[in-house]
Write a structure and sequence with these properties.
33 strands
Length: 876
């Protein structure tokens, strides 16, 4: 069903006159329409309308018909109220005048679409007229019904020559036939088309983007077609020129011998030419996407990448050099010039890097100073100071860098200096003379270090490379070379050497380990501490010895960034034990990350031994005081028992039955009295007969007695000096000391063995040793001077360390009950300590024991020489 057009409905309704929509059937008919129907008065004000019109016009703030329906500020040019025309219509609205008197219509009836009134499409006519795109409209017969100014200019004809004529006259038969075919396609699909075409105009072929759109009339049927031609000839030519330029650029880049690489803002490769691909030994596609300088070690590549990323509009280029190792193993030097390419916002769009192999140039770089004119740019911009002196010492050339080093504002100011400037700037003339001597001897000199005085009086260190330039006759023309300011380096070297010397000479051990606990450095003290007296850096593999310091618990603490301190027990070479006081701390870098750990180690083996001996001496002192008190009290109890028992025995007859029990009491009391005497001897509170005592006779006599008291399986050997070794002591006590030691040695060899008893003189007292136990006076308190050394050794079962530490305690014994009182060695301790001497015990399980008693000798008027002191005779 075809929908009625607005103009037909408006004419039909207008026929009812001024009463339209007030009666039937117009009222009912209007309410059923899909259009808005409105009646306006002569002032163009809304009077009445159907429901759609009332709803639509109720939203208008100023409901004049020309504003609501056509979006115009003034009445429409063809309004029925203003002229003889009876109707005015557009695609979406129609207005028809209502019958009135001769003065004109009494109003207007309007039929319009509910969406009408926002915009007047006729206003686009001016836009189309001035558009640069050629616009034309043809009817279904392909006659031109509209062209804009651009279309006129394109074809060089006026509008009166075009309108009404067939498009074939303008387009030509070929393009017209194509247009007709496209129109048929448009009519079938109901949508426009767009394509690029080529037209020959003014004798030349031109390119256009052609668009074709269907135009529907008020009835909704397509009654015309609009065509648009946008010329793109210049664009296509520019594109072709760009393609040619690209091909030329590509040919230039690909065919040249230099390495060309394009990089994105993150320095990843976008393009590499064939030369770069051949040099790297990889196809171009394999190199794309990789990071620039990826073949270098990271510590070398990262500073170069930072230099590239720092490029900006003011400094868009930079030059970098680096070493490059080819897959075959040969090493080359590459030089790159990198330029930053910026977009319109000033941001880096990409980087272009041009490189070349400068291996030969790199090796010959030091020869560049031979020609000032050829290398003027390098001369002026070198970071090193470059100079020329004539034979008189006057400066004839220098670059700005040297002027700055010497404290001048510029090279010109330095060159104005008169006389022997080379001599005046020297801080030490000996350096100048040595420099000239070496130069005369070798003709050139490298890395010669000298101290010079700047113009402001400050001394700086220079590293100088120079050569003598001679004429054909061998006479000196000039001295030229380069100088580098190494003041900071020298200062750092001095500080480093001071630190290295301090660390190397420190008595404290220092070691540096990595984060994964591998040894990186150890000073000599550390090597000596962990390796013993033979430990030296380089002579020991110190890595495995770190395990004693870096246990699992210690590593966990260090992993948390904490410090650890404590004592560590080590086993040195030859099973020597040592104790160290150790501190392990993390070392952090500037960002706070742990990069190393430092170990500070102090050998406290000697101090630990002293502490142990001090505790032993204090323990024996305390036991001695206790034993002395107990002995006195016990002696007081024994005295009346023994006295009364002896009195009773004197009064009773010989045959009295009580005599035997009483005799047993006396014998038991006498044994108790001997025990009390031993306790008093240990505590040095017994009655003594002290005087000069020659030791050799007493020792020989005691050995004879001991032979009858030990089993025959024990072989007693003696090494007794024949010198007159005299001490100040009680004979009975010394006899008791030697007898106790002999009996203990014999009891340590139940299966038999060798007991050795010896006596000799030594020039000085013993010193503490890690593997020995001491009793008597502490070894550190022994007076200086000669001593008598009395020793008893056996080849018995020996003693473990925990037993050896307690053998001098009273009542301590390892024998079965009834076989010993545990007072023998306690008495030895007390007697020797009372004589101002010491006892040193050395024992190991399975290797026997050795007891050495050191007793101070009485000074003599003419002491024997050292050869006599250590001489001894041996007999078995």
């Amino acid at each position: 069903m075809t929908t009625a057009s607005p103009i037909r409905l408006a004419v039909t309704l207008a026929n009812e006159g001024q009463g339209v929509l007030t009666g039937e059937p117009s009222g009912t008919l209007a309410e059923g329409l899909a259009f808005c129907v409105a009646v306006w008065d002569v002032g163009r004000r809304f009077l009445r309308g159907n429901a759609l019109a009332r709803e639509r016009l109720g939203e208008a703030s100023e409901p004049a018909c020309h504003r609501v329906l056509h979006g115009r500020a003034a009445p429409c040019p063809g309004c029925p109220l203003d002229g003889p025309q009876a109707a005015f219509a557009t695609d979406w609205a129609a207005c028809v005048g209502l019958g009135g008197d001769d003065a004109g219509p009494a109003g207007i009836v309007s039929v319009f679409s509910p969406a009408a009134g926002g915009f007047d499409a006729s206003r686009l006519a001016a836009v189309l007229e001035y558009a640069v795109t050629a616009v034309f409209v043809v009817d279904r017969a392909y006659r031109l019904v509209y062209v804009n100014a651009a279309f006129e200019r394109l074809h060089g004809k006026g509008r009166e020559e075009l309108l009404g004529h067939s498009l074939a006259v303008v387009a030509g038969p070929v393009h017209f036939a194509r247009f007709q075919k496209d129109v048929q396609e448009i009519l079938r699909n109901g949508s426009g088309t767009e394509e690029e075409i080529r037209l020959t105009l003014d004798g030349r072929e031109r390119s256009f983007m052609a668009a074709r759109l269907p135009l529907a009339g008020p009835s909704g049927e397509v009654d015309a077609l609009c065509g648009m031609l946008t010329e793109i000839t210049a664009h296509r030519q520019a594109q072709r020129d760009l393609d040619v330029a690209k091909r030329r650029y590509q040919a230039i880049v690909e065919d040249q011998s230099e390495l060309v690489v394009r990089l994105d803002p993150k320095l990843r490769r976008l393009f590499v030419n064939r030369a770069a691909a051949r040099f790297s030994g990889r196809p171009p596609e394999a190199a794309l996407g990789g990071l620039f300088l990826e073949a270098l070690p990271e510590e070398e590549a990262e500073p170069l990448r930072r230099r590239i990323l720092a490029l900006g509009p003011r400094a868009p280029t930079t030059d970098i050099r680096h070493r490059f190792r080819l897959p075959g193993g040969s090493e080359h030097y590459l030089s790159w010039t990198v330029r930053a390419i910026f977009d319109e916002t000033g941001q880096v769009g990409e980087y272009q890097a041009t490189g070349r192999d400068v291996t030969a140039y790199w090796h010959m770089e030091r020869e560049l100073v031979k020609s000032e004119s050829k290398y003027k740019d390098i001369f002026e911009n070198s970071a090193e100071g470059i100079f020329q002196f004539d034979p008189s010492g006057a400066m004839v050339a220098c670059n700005p860098a040297l002027a700055r080093i010497l404290g001048y504002a510029g090279a010109e100011e330095a060159l104005r200096e008169q006389g022997d400037l080379f001599c005046r700037i020297q801080a030490h003339q000996d350096d100048r003379l040595e420099f000239l001597r070496l130069l005369a001897l070798h003709g050139r000199i490298f890395d010669f270090e000298m101290q010079v005085v700047r113009r402001d009086g400050r001394a700086v260190w220079l590293s100088v490379n120079a050569r003598a330039v001679l004429d054909e006759a061998g006479r000196l023309l000039r001295v030229e070379g380069a100088a580098r300011d190494i003041t900071d380096r020298k200062r750092a070297e001095d500080e480093r050497m001071l630190l290295v010397s301090a660390v190397d000479q420190s008595a404290e051990g220092l070691a540096i380990v990595s984060r994964d606990f591998r040894l990186e450095y150890a000073n000599p003290a550390f090597a000596q501490i962990v390796g013993g007296g033979q430990g030296q850096p380089g002579s020991l593999d110190l890595g495995p010895r770190l395990a004693a310091f870096l246990g699992e618990s210690v590593r966990k603490m260090l992993a948390l960034g904490l410090r650890w301190s404590g004592r560590v027990r080590l086993t040195r070479d030859e099973d020597e034990e040592a104790v160290t006081d150790t501190l392990i701390s993390p070392v952090r870098d500037a960002s706070g990350q742990i990069v190393n750990h430092i170990l500070l180690v102090r050998d406290i083996t000697y101090e630990t031994g002293l502490e142990k001996r001090l505790r032993q001496v204090e323990k024996l002192e305390a036991i001695g005081v206790l034993a002395g008190g107990v002995a006195h009290d016990f002696n007081n109890l024994l005295t009346p028992i023994l006295l009364n028992t002896e009195m009773i025995l004197a009064d009773i007859p010989w045959r009295d039955p009580l005599r035997k029990p009483l005799a047993d009491v006396v014998r038991a009391s006498e044994r108790a009295r001997d025990l009390v005497r031993q306790l008093l001897t240990f505590s040095r509170q017994g009655e003594l007969t002290v005087g000069p005592l020659p030791l050799p006779p007493l020792v020989k006599e005691t050995v004879k007695l001991a032979r009858g008291m030990v089993e025959a399986r024990v072989d007693i050997r003696q090494q007794i000096s024949e010198l007159a070794l005299t001490i100040l002591a009680d004979p009975a006590q010394i006899h008791q000391v030697l007898m106790n030691l002999c009996l203990n040695a014999a009891q340590a060899m139940p299966e038999g063995g060798v007991m050795e008893v010896g006596l000799a003189a030594v020039p000085e007292p013993p010193r503490p040793g890690a593997a020995s136990i001491a009793a008597g006076l502490p070894l550190t308190e022994l007076a200086e001077g000669p001593y008598a050394r009395l020793w008893v050794s056996d080849t018995g079962h020996g003693m473990p360390p925990d037993i050896a530490e307690r053998i001098f305690e009273p009542f301590f014994t390892t024998k079965r009950p009834g076989q010993g009182t545990g007072m023998g060695l306690a008495a030895v301790h007390g007697i020797v300590k009372g004589c101002g001497g010491a006892v040193v015990v050395t024992s190991a399980v399975g290797e026997g024991s050795r007891f050495e008693v050191y007793l101070p000798l009485i000074p003599r008027q003419a002491p024997p020489d050292s050869a006599q002191l250590i001489g001894a005779s041996s007999s078995s």
